[in-house]
Write a structure and sequence with these properties.
Blueprint (H helix, E strand, L loop, with lengths): L13 H15 L4 H21 L10 H13 L2 E4 L5 E3 L3 H20 L24 H10 L3 H13 L3 H5 L6 E5 L2 E8 L2 E7 L1 H13 L26 H14 L8 H14 L4 H8 L5 H6 L9 H8 L5
Antiparallel strand pairs: 1-2, 3-4, 4-5
Length: 322
Amino acid sequence: MAESTIVTPPVPDALHRLSDDFLAHVRAQGRAVKTSESYRYPLERVFLPWCVGQGITEPTQLSSRVLDRFAIYLREEGDQRVGQDGRRLGKLSEASISSYSRSIRVFLGWAEKEGELTEKVRVPVPKPKKPELEVLSAEEIQRMEDAARSERDELLVRVLADTGIRLGELLGLRARDLQETDRGKYRLRVSGKTGERRVPVPPALARRLRRHLSRRHADPSDKIFVALRRSRRTGDYEPLTENGAEQAIRQLAAAAGIRRRVYPHLFRHSYATNALRKGMSVLNLQQILGHASLTMISQVYAHLSDDDTYEAALKVLLPEER
């Protein structure tokens, strides 16, 4: 009988252990899974392998000069992964370089607070050129709604278009979240990244939602958006999933003859762009969209004034309150 060999896994070096501690810290903060993964990949698949190749195993070895070399590596060498065809993936896009650099800067800032670094070091973050934001026109949105073969999909398009809420927020809506705050005035109670807020709903859309829920005999706790068919397992209409909603939107866009990529968040961009063009105060838009600050709005929607300077764009985006 052959003797079994016990393989001892390699002991991670101090820099790898520090990375593990940082990722555990991120998870402990209750951050979204996508947020945690946005840190994990740049650290474990890009930064740490590069450090190993440079003989860097201790946090104290990190210096401004070292990180300058890493920034050059990101720009000139890029992604060392091998694709399905066996070739190295190669150079990164400007957006990927900026994203990776920002993630690693967060890690280094945390390590500094933990007293693990001997000096304050940062990875230079290039500013990628922002592409002009695409939006859906009112006519394209109407074509998508007209292409729907179910009342649920009609409402899916219309609620995304007329409220600007995130897909996750929409999927979390329950029947009781449609509220009449005053005679003929309706709101959706939305739970989002910045907490709970009330989002205005056009009266006609609110009445459509009420009729839809009434025909379903929905209880107040029932989700507003559910699958079109009953589950074979439970016999009930399961809540609509993120993948299901995204697929429905893609199919409706194709049926409406829209050739470019259409996804749920595009409705949010379209809502905000249209609201600003019609003169809505960014303070009101901030409350409706659930942004923690005006920074996101001023950056993302600066495309509204392409021929003006950035300062002039901000004046357009920040009208005086009356």
